[in-house]
Design goal:
Helix content is 20%, strand content 23%. It contains 22 helices and 49 strands. The chain is globular and about 130 Å long.
C-alpha cells in the first residue's frame, strides 16, 4: 500500500477526489469577484517556484520558562491612593519532541527507502514543520555567545548522517544480556532466558525512553541529555520507545571534531565536540505547490504554498564500490553533544537518539542518476499507448490461421485482454475485455437507451467467435458501486420516487383536462372552498323556487351521459404519450439549482445544479456527486483501469483516451438501481437528460462547461517513488480564467502516477488542444550532491551563479561561474572541501564528509569576486556571510524536467452526454474491424528535453553499462495466443523409478518470452518461470511446490544479490497462489505455489502448467556468461517432500545496442 506524506498542519482532507476542477472554479469565481489572481490564494510565489531561508526559529523554543505578570492600578485624581503593583509568577514548560518523532513530522526523504543512488548523493530529510529543526537548541554555546553569522544561521538540534551497516553493527559481547550495553535496562530484564538483544534493519536498538539513563557507561558514552531530568520532562514520551544507534567512537570524533582549513582535526587539549558545522546543513524552503501531487492536495480557500524544513547530510555513500552496497541513514539528535567530556570519548561507542531512519542502496560510480532516468523515460518506446509493446510476427501458417492471429493481435493492439468468462448456461469460455482507458479514440456513442441487465451491451466478434464484455462489465461495476454506496442508493430511490410521482400526477391532470373532466389539485381545491360554501348555502332557496323547474332538473339529472373516463394508469395509452415529457420536466426541476443564476435556461427549465449553486433537492446533490465522480473514474478498481500488467511496463509513460461509452454504461448501471417501479425506463432516461443539461450548459460566471476527462496518462518509474510530488503542466498554457486541464493527479502506487486531462492532443484543423506536457521535479524534493564528480581521489564542484538582487538580466544564468577541483592529499591556499578519511588506527578510515564550513567560505569568496567582476556586474552578489541557504542552492542538483511532445490526432468533434435514447440490442462487430476506428492515432513516441544547469551527462561519465533496451515487450498475465506464451523445451518421459509426475522448467525474460537466456542488464527485469506438466500425473494430489533461487552478491552462481520486488504472480493457472520469502539459512529466494482450494490440494491431472512471473529482479552483472542452479521441492498428499531434478538459468551479457522497437 502506498504511504501518503503527511498533510499540512491544521488542514483538512480534500472534500472530493475532483478537488482540482472544483478548486479551479472557486478560484476563478473569487478572481472575478475580487480581482485577485486566480492562482494566488495568498501566495506571492508563482506556481512551482520556491524561496530559500537559512532558518526559521519558532517564537519560543522548548524548555522551562517563568512568566512574570505585573498589574498596576492607577487611581483617579482626588480618589483613593494608588495601589502598589502586584506581580504574579507562573512557571511554564514548552514541550517538544526529544526522544520520539511524531508520525506526521517527516514529509519525504531522499534517496527513497529501498531505492538506489549514486555515491556522491547527500541524503536528506524534508520535514513537514518548517520550525522543527530549531524547536530545541542544538548549541548552548552559540546561544550564550552568538557567532558572527548568528543572525542568518542557527544550529539545529537534529542532523542527518549516513552510515554503512558495519559502522553501526554491535558485537555479540556488546549485545550480551549479562555484561553488555543493555544489562541494566528493562529491555533485558523482560527477556526470556536465552534471548538476546537484537538490532533493527537500520542497525538501531529500540529501547524504552526511561531506559536511556540505564545504559552501561563503561561501554558507551552518552550525550548530556541522557539524564533523569530530561526523561522526566519528556511527559508525552516517557512510556514510548526510542531508537538508539551506537557509532564507533573514532567515527564519532570525526563527525564532531573541530577541523582547520585543510581538514585536519584540532589537537589542542580540552577541545569540546563541535556542532557548529550543522548550522549550514539545515534550511527552509517556501514553495508554491500548485500542480504537485500530494503537496497541492487542498480545497479552495487553502493556500497552495507550503514551508518545509530540509536537513542535509554532509556524509556521502561509500566511494569506490564495485557492487551496490547498503547505506543506513539516521536523523539523529545532537542536543547535548557539545557538552560531552572528555572528548575524544574513552568508551568504544557513543549512544545517539535516532529520530528517523531508512536504508537505500549505494551504486557504483558509473551508474544511472536521476537525470539519466528522466532522459531514459522519454526515449524509444518508453512513451506510447496503453497497450503491450507488440512483437513482429512472421509465420508460415495457412492464410485462415494467419488472419485469426492478426485479428487477435489487432484486438490486443486496441487495448483488449482475454479473460475467463462464464456464460448463462454455466460453461466457461474466453472473452475480450478492456476498461475505460483505451489506446485508441473510440467513436461515441456506440449505444443508445438503457440496459436492463448489461447483457445487451455484449459485442460479438464474428470472425473469432468471442464476446467483448467490456461494456457489460462496466454496467455491472456501476451497479455494484451504486449498491455499495448506501447514501447514493437511498438518495437515488427518493429521487426516482419523487420524479415518478410528480410526473404521473401532472400527466393525469393533463389527460383529464383533455377529456373535459374537471379536476382540481390541492391548491385549486383550497381556492374554490369559498365558492363551494356559497353554492351549498344557496341550495335551500333553490328548492322552494316558484319556477317549479326543480323536478324537471332532478329528472334530467339521470338522463345525462357522463363523459368517458380515460385510463390514468402509467401503462395507459393516454398517460404513456405524455409521461416522458412530464418525467423530463420533473427531473429538470429536481436537478435544478439556485444562487448561481436566476430565471430559466434556454430550454425553459430552471438552470441545473452545478456544485457552485444551491441544489433544489439535497438528494439530487448526492446523485449528482456520485455520477460526476464516476465520470472522473473515482473509486474505479485499478484492475478495471489497467486490465493487464503488460500495458504498463516499468520505466514508461503510457497515454490513453477515455472511452465515453464505457463511462456511459457504468452510469447506466448505477442509475438502474430501484428500477422495479420504472418498467419502461422513463425515469432513468429523464435523470440522464437532466444531468446532460449540466454537462451541456456553461457554468454561470465561469464561461466554460463542466470538465470531463477525455485523455490522460500513467507514469510508472522509480522517479515517482523518489519524487512523489512530481509537477505536471501542459502546453499551451491556458488562461487562469479558462476551464481546468488537469482533472486528477494521484499516486496510485509507490511508483505509478495517474493523471486525467480534459483536453486531447491537438487535432487536425483545431485550435487550443494539447501540444505537449511537462514533468518537472518538485523544488522541495530536489536532491543534493557533494559535487559534480566524486571518487576516492578527486572531487569536482561546479559553482553556480547566485544573485542577491532581484530581476537580474544575465544571459549566462545557467552557466557555472567556475569549475573547481580538489585532489586528495593535495593542500593549497583554498584549503580542503572534502575529507576522505583519517588514519586506520583512529577507527575512522572512511570519513567521506564535506568540510562544509570551508566550502561555504570558498563559495562565497568566489561568488563575490566573480559575480561582481568578469562574470557579472557590481552589486549582483553582496552576501556578507556564508549561509545555509546559499550552500543548499549550491549542493542542489538542477530541477530536471521532461517535456513530451504529443502528435496531432485526426479531427473528430465529440462531447460527453449520457445516452437517453431507445432500448439497445446486442451489437455484432463486423469481421475485420472493431469499434476503435482511430487505431494508430495514439500518443506515439515522445521527444524528451532536459532543462537545468549544465551537469555531466550519462555518456560523459563513461558509463560501462549498456543503454536500456526500451523496445522490450512487457509480460502478459493472461493468455493471448499460444505463440505469445513462453515456449519450454519438450522433455521425454523419464525413467525415474519413483514415478512422480514430471514437469518441465525454464526461465525467460518477460520482454522476450521465447528466449532461453537472461541478459544481465543494470536495471530490474521481470522473469517468467515456466513450469509445464509433461506426464505421470496418476492420482497424485499436489500440496505445495517450492522454487529455491540462490541470491548472493559475491557468488557468480547466484541470480541476484537481494530481492525487494513486487513478488511472484501466477500467469494463467489461477488454481494456485504464489508467495515469496527470503531464506537466510541458504541465502535464497523461495517462491512457493499453494493451491487455492479449501482442501489445500490439487490433483496433478488438473495442472496443465504452474507458470509464474517474478517481478523486479536485479540480475547480478558479471563479465561473462554463467549458469544459476535452481532447485525445486514438491509436496504430494501423504508423501515426503520430493526433490525434483534442478534446472538452470543461463545468464549472458546484454546487447551493446538497445533493442529496436518492433514495427506496429
Amino acid at each position: 500500500m502506498h504511504i501518503r506524506p503527511p498533510r499540512r498542519r491544521h488542514s483538512r482532507p480534500v472534500s472530493s477526489r475532483r478537488y482540482l476542477s472544483l478548486r479551479h472554479g472557486h478560484r476563478v469565481l473569487r478572481a472575478l469577484e475580487t480581482g485577485i489572481a486566480a492562482h494566488a490564494d495568498g501566495s506571492d510565489l508563482a506556481p512551482g517556484h520556491e524561496r530559500l531561508h537559512s532558518s526559521k526559529v519558532p517564537g519560543i523554543k522548548a524548555g522551562e520558562y517563568e512568566l512574570d505578570a505585573t498589574q498596576t492600578i492607577v487611581a483617579r485624581e482626588g480618589e483613593q491612593p494608588e495601589l502598589a503593583p502586584k506581580t504574579t509568577k507562573q512557571h511554564v514548560t514548552v514541550v517538544a519532541p526529544r526522544f520520539v518523532l511524531p508520525s506526521e513530522a517527516v514529509y519525504s526523504v531522499y534517496p527513497a527507502p529501498g531505492q538506489s543512488a549514486r555515491p556522491e548523493v547527500l541524503p536528506h530529510v524534508v520535514l513537514n514543520d518548517a520550525t522543527f529543526p530549531w524547536e530545541r537548541s542544538g548549541s548552548e554555546n552559540a546561544e550564550a555567545k552568538p557567532p558572527e553569522d548568528y543572525e542568518w544561521n542557527r544550529v539545529p538540534w537534529v542532523a542527518v548522517l549516513a552510515f554503512t551497516a558495519d559502522e553501526l553493527a554491535l558485537t555479540p559481547e556488546e549485545l550480551a544480556t549479562e555484561t553488555g550495553i543493555f544489562r541494566n535496562t528493562t529491555l533485558v530484564k523482560n527477556m526470556r532466558p536465552g534471548d538476546n538483544v537484537s538490532q533493527t534493519e537500520a542497525m538501531a536498538v529500540m529501547l524504552p525512553v526511561a531506559d536511556v539513563v540505564n545504559l552501561g557507561l563503561d561501554h558507551v558514552a552518552v550525550p548530556t541529555t541522557f539524564n533523569s531530568k530530561a526523561v522526566e520532562d519528556a511527559v508525552d514520551e516517557k512510556n514510548a520507545n526510542t531508537s538508539l544507534i551506537f557509532p564507533k567512537s573514532g567515527l564519532f570524533r570525526h563527525l564532531f571534531a573541530t577541523y582547520d582549513k585543510h581538514g585536519k582535526i584540532a589537537q589542542e587539549a580540552g577541545v569540546a565536540p563541535d556542532v557548529s558545522r550543522y548550522r549550514l546543513l539545515a534550511h527552509v524552503r517556501h514553495v508554491n505547490t500548485e500542480g504537485m501531487t500530494h503537496a497541492d492536495e487542498v480545497d479552495a480557500g487553502e493556500p497552495s504554498d507550503r514551508e518545509f524544513a530540509a536537513v542535509v547530510s554532509h556524509r556521502t555513500g561509500p566511494l569506490g564500490l564495485a557492487a551496490p552496497g547498503k547505506v543506513v541513514v539516521h536523523m539523529v539528535s545532537i542536543e547535548g553533544i557539545e557538552a560531552m567530556a572528555p572528548f575524544p570519548v574513552v568508551q568504544a561507542r557513543v549512544a545517539m537518539v535516532s529520530l528517523h531512519s531508512w536504508t537505500y542502496m549505494c551504486l557504483p560510480g558509473n551508474s544511472f542518476s536521476a537525470a539519466d532516468s528522466f532522459a531514459a523515460l522519454g526515449e524509444g518506446t518508453a512513451c506510447g499507448p496503453l497497450r503491450p509493446v507488440m512483437p513482429s510476427w512472421k509465420t508460415q501458417e495457412p492464410e485462415e490461421e494467419a488472419d485469426v492471429k492478426a485479428r487477435v493481435l489487432r484486438r490486443v493492439a486496441d487495448g483488449y485482454s482475454l479473460t475467463r468468462y462464464r456464460v448463462k448456461t454455466g460453461e466457461t469460455t474466453a472473452a475480450f475485455t478492456r476498461g475505460p482507458l483505451v489506446p485508441t479514440d473510440v467513436r461515441y456513442p456506440l449505444f443508445a437507451g438503457n440496459s436492463a441487465s448489461g447483457a445487451s451491451l455484449h459485442i460479438m466478434d464474428r470472425q473469432l467467435g468471442v464476446l467483448d464484455i467490456s461494456y457489460s462489465a462496466a454496467w455491472q461495476l456501476g451497479k455494484a458501486l451504486g449498491m455499495a454506496d448506501q447514501a447514493f442508493a437511498a438518495a437515488l430511490g427518493r429521487v426516482r420516487k419523487q420524479v415518478g410521482q410528480v410526473a404521473h400526477n401532472r400527466a393525469q391532470v393533463r389527460v383529464l383536462a383533455d377529456a373535459g373532466i374537471a379536476f382540481k389539485g390541492k391548491e385549486e381545491l383550497i381556492r374554490s372552498i369559498a365558492g363551494t360554501v356559497e353554492r351549498l348555502a344557496a341550495l335551500p332557496a333553490q328548492r322552494h323556487s316558484p319556477t317549479g323547474g326543480r323536478l324537471d332538473a332532478a329528472a334530467a339529472r339521470w338522463r345525462t351521459i357522463p363523459p368517458p373516463v380515460p385510463s390514468l394508469s402509467r401503462h395507459g395509452a393516454e398517460i404513456s404519450e405524455i409521461l416522458d415529457e412530464e418525467l423530463h420536466t420533473a427531473a429538470c426541476e429536481i436537478a435544478s439549482g439556485s444562487g448561481g443564476a436566476t430565471g430559466v435556461a434556454e430550454d425553459g427549465h430552471p438552470p441545473p445544479y452545478n456544485e457552485y449553486n444551491t441544489a433544489a433537492s439535497p438528494d439530487w446533490m448526492v446523485v449528482h456527486k456520485f455520477v460526476t465522480d464516476l465520470l472522473h473514474l473515482v473509486n474505479i478498481p485499478p484492475h478495471y483501469l489497467v486490465t493487464d500488467p503488460s500495458h504498463l511496463p516499468q520505466e514508461s509513460i503510457r497515454f490513453f483516451h477515455v472511452d465515453q461509452n464505457w463511462l456511459d454504461a457504468a452510469v447506466d448501471g448505477a442509475l438502474s438501481l430501484g428500477n422495479h417501479a420504472d418498467h419502461g425506463g422513463g425515469v432513468r432516461r429523464a435523470l440522464k437528460a437532466a444531468y446532460n443539461r449540466y454537462l451541456a450548459a456553461d457554468l454561470p460566471a465561469l464561461a466554460y462547461r463542466p470538465a470531463v476527462p477525455r485523455y490522460g496518462f500513467f507514469v510508472r518509474s522509480v522517479l515517482i517513488t523518489q519524487f512523489a510530488d512530481m509537477r505536471v503542466t501542459t502546453e499551451p498554457a491556458r488562461s487562469k480564467l479558462d476551464g481546468p486541464v488537469l482533472l486528477r493527479q494521484e499516486i496510485v502506487d509507490p511508483e505509478i502516477m495517474f493523471c486525467l486531462l480534459t483536453d486531447q492532443p491537438k487535432r487536425a484543423g483545431a485550435e487550443g488542444e494539447l501540444l505537449s506536457l511537462m514533468l518537472t521535479q518538485p523544488p522541495h524534493q530536489q536532491y543534493f550532491t557533494a559535487g559534480r564528480a566524486l571518487d576516492s581521489k578527486t572531487i569536482t564542484l561546479s559553482y553556480k551563479r547566485n544573485y542577491t538582487m532581484e530581476d537580474v538580466q544575465d544571459p549566462h544564468r545557467s552557466d557555472p561561474v567556475e569549475l573547481r577541483e580538489w585532489k586528495r592529499g593535495h593542500h593549497d591556499d583554498r584549503g580542503a572541501v572534502f575529507i576522505w578519511g583519517g588514519k586506520p588506527e583512529e577507527g575512522a578510515a572512511d570519513v567521506r564528509t564535506l568540510h562544509v564550513e570551508n566550502l561555504a567560505d570558498d563559495l562565497r569568496a568566489v561568488l563575490t569576486a566573480k559575480m561582481n567582476g568578469d562574470s557579472g556586474q557590481a552589486g549582483w552578489f553582496a552576501e556578507q556571510k556564508p549561509t545555509s541557504g546559499l550552500l543548499a542552492y549550491q549542493l542542489n542538483e538542477p530541477s530536471w524536467q521532461l517535456k513530451v511532445q504529443l502528435p496531432p490526432l485526426p479531427r473528430r468533434p465529440s462531447a460527453m452526454q449520457l445516452s437517453c435514447g431507445a432500448a439497445r440490442t446486442v451489437m455484432v462487430a463486423a469481421a475485420g474491424r472493431t469499434f476503435a476506428e482511430a487505431r494508430g492515432t495514439h500518443a506515439a513516441a515522445a521527444a524528451a528535453m532536459l532543462a537545468g544547469a549544465p551537469f555531466p551527462t550519462y555518456a560523459e561519465r563513461n558509463t560501462q553499462f549498456a543503454p536500456l533496451p526500451f523496445g522490450r515487450m512487457p509480460y502478459a498475465r493472461t493468455a493471448i495466443s499460444a505463440s505469445i506464451l513462453p515456449r519450454t523445451p519438450e522433455i521425454a518421459p523419464s525413467d525415474d523409478p519413483t514415478g512422480f509426475p514430471k514437469f518441465s522448467y525454464s526461465v525467460a525474460p518477460a520482454d522476450n518470452p521465447e528466449s532461453m537466456t537472461v541478459e544481465m542488464h543494470p536495471y530490474r527485469q521481470d522473469l517468467i518461470f515456466s513450469i509445464n506438466y509433461v506426464s505421470g500425473a496418476m492420482a497424485y494430489m499436489l500440496r505445495k511446490l517450492t522454487v529455491s533461487i540462490p541470491m548472493t552478491v559475491a557468488d557468480n552462481a547466484n541470480l541476484a544479490g537481494s530481492y525487494d520486488g513486487a513478488g511472484a504472480t501466477m500467469l494463467s493457472n489461477l488454481r494456485f497462489v504464489a508467495r515469496h520469502a527470503v531464506s537466510d539459512a541458504n541465502n535464497s529466494l523461495l517462491v512457493v505455489l499453494l493451491p487455492r482450494s479449501r482442501a489445500k490440494k490439487v490433483a496433478a491431472s488438473l495442472i496443465p502448467d504452474m507458470s509464474f512471473l517474478l517481478a523486479g529482479v536485479q540480475v547480478n552483472a558479471e563479465d561473462g556468461p554463467r549458469k544459476v542452479t535452481v532447485s525445486v521441492e514438491i509436496e504430494y498428499n501423504n508423501i515426503p517432500v520430493f526433490k525434483a531434478p534442478p534446472f538452470y538459468i543461463d545468464l549472458v551479457k546484454p546487447l551493446k545496442e538497445p533493442v529496436e522497437p518492433p514495427p506496429e
